[in-house]
Every structure is written in C-alpha cells, then in structure tokens.
UniProtKB/TrEMBL annotation:
It comes from the Bacteria. Its main location: membrane. Belongs to the cytochrome c oxidase subunit 2 family. It comes from Psychroserpens burtonensis. PANTHER family: CYTOCHROME C OXIDASE SUBUNIT 2, CYTOCHROME C OXIDASE, SUBUNIT II. Keywords: Electron transport, Membrane, Respiratory chain, Translocase, Transmembrane, Transmembrane helix, Transport. It is found in: Membrane. This is cytochrome-c oxidase. The chain crosses the membrane at residues 6-24, 44-67, 87-111, 132-151. The lineage of its organism: Bacteria, Pseudomonadati, Bacteroidota, Flavobacteriia, Flavobacteriales.
Amino acid sequence: MTAFLTLIIVLFILVAIWQMVKIFDLAQVGSSDSQVATDKDNKINGYMMMGFLVFIYAITILSFWYLGDLPLTSNAASEHGTEIDKLMIISMIVIFIVQTITQFLLHYFAFKYKGEKGRKALFYADNNTLEAIWTFIPVIVLAGLIIYGLFTWTSIMNVDETDDPLIVELYAQQFNWKARYGGEDNTLGLANVRLIDIDRANILGVDESDPYAQDDVITQELHLPVGRPVLFKMRSQDVLHSAYMPHFRAQMNCVPGMITQFGFTPSVTTADMRQNPDIQEKVENINNIRLANSVEIEAKGQELLYEFDYLLLCNKICGKSHYNMQMKIIVETQEEYDAWMKEQKVFKNSLINN
C-alpha cells in the first residue's frame, strides 16, 4: 500500500512538472498558435476529467476498505468520549456526502461542456433558486453541526464540583510533565513560578507557607481511579504547551501566567484497554516492526517490546524536544489508586532543608 501511494505521488509530481513546462512555453512572447488547444485536446481533457473522477472514487473506496476504521473510534476511555466520536463520525459523513456530489458535478460539467469550435457554453447570469439552494442548505447543515458541537462541548466542560472530582494539576515545562495531587484534603496549595527553588526541590513553585500545600503530592506518572471525575488544573512554566490525552478525548492549552482546566471521568482501566482487540492488534503490529529492527533498538538501550499505556502528550510544537514530551497515564481501580498514593511523598516531606 505504501509503495502504491508513493508511486501515485511521484506520478502527480511528474504531471505537475509537465504542466508547468507547458505554461512556461505558452508564456513566451511570440509563441505560435500550435500551443492553442484544439477540439481533440479538449476532448482528451474531458475524458481525463472523467477518468480522474473514477480514480477519486476508486481510491476513496479502497481507503475505506483497507483503512476504514476512524482513529480511536472504538477506544474512547472517558465517559464523554463516545459523544466526541459521534460528533466526529457525523462530520465525516456530511463531508463525504458533499465531497461525492460536488466532485461529480465538477468533473461531469468539465466533460459535458468541454471546448468545441463554434459552441457556446450554457450559463445563467442570475438564478435566485440555485443561489438559495447552495446558500441555505450549507447554512442549515453547518448551523446544526455547530449547535450540536456547542452542546457537546458545554456538557464536557461544565464539571460538576459537587461530584467531588479528584483535583490534579498538570504542570508543563520544556520538555516534560509533572502531576500534582491535592492530597488528603483534595485541595491544591497555591503556586507561582517565581517561588521555584531548585535547591529545596520545590520544582513547581508551590507556596511552602500555604497549609493546603503541605500534603500535596508531586509525581512524574499520572494515576487516575476509574469511574471518578477528575478535574485538571493546568499551568505552564515557559511556553505554550497543550495537554493532549487522545484516548480520553481531552485537550487543553497550558498557558504561561494563567490556569486552564479540563475535566473528564475515566471509564476504562489500563488493564482492560490492553485486552481491547484493536489495541492488541496495534501492539502486535508495532512489536513486529520492532522485532524486525531489534539490533538498532537494543543498541539504543530501549525496551524491545512495546506495551500499551495511556499517554499525556504535548500537542503544541514547543521546542526541539517537543516530540518526546509525554507522561504515562495509569487508570486503575480506586483500591489500587489508594495503595499507590500511600507510597508517595507529600510536599512538606520532599523539601530539602538547607
């Protein structure tokens, strides 16, 4: 499939170069009329337009046949994820229908009204009915999509704090993430980048005098209990980052100098997601590739076999190591989460006294 696509791209490049050469020749001063299209040329171009239409439909059908699964559509791991997927699928269906109709009309009329000597193409100087059709139909469809999207977005963003969500801070810096939990009181202490003190291991600028900060927990791995709402508070130390958790259908910018937030409820544990057939197939494909390149991978000191994990990624190009800015997310039962939390150091005990 890759070789086929490469061949198609090379063919398009050659056609583009050929067309550019023809345009250059036509632009030359004093060029002869031999370059003016004849009826035969127009007929060939007309049939080529229809041939290209067939090619578009064929490549579309093949793409659906071999690559038909939309990315992650069966792997949503948050309660709101199915709504996001539904909105995505509806948008893709609308785009597909519009593309199918408009491409047919474009190529068909290019064929039907191909140039011929003595023939004048039929045209309308003004047609209120047609203008109404191609104005009102898109307006209605787009308004429906926008309104549906706004309702979906509002339902996601309106986190009900009466549900006692777990409060977690995601702290972004070039080029890693830190997570800060509110501790037993589930309340984050005050923090400011001006309070960062590397000598005392206060790497997030947490206010040491704030009573709420004493039991905060700072980690380099994000653990979340399944079925419990989580409200993320996001900060950035340096540049604009974007906290992106694809399987949870969550993304929010981390902006220097302000706190942004996003909330969701994890619905599938890491262990359960690893049993998902789509994930198992993906892992198998990745490991087959890695085994084929085992010498290079082991030479770099990396683990040979890949195991699926949820990831927190940066979705903004934030610098030269942007590609490597990620943190593992582990979704587990409440009991497993509580056991993990008991093993963590609280903020007041992690400071280094000088």
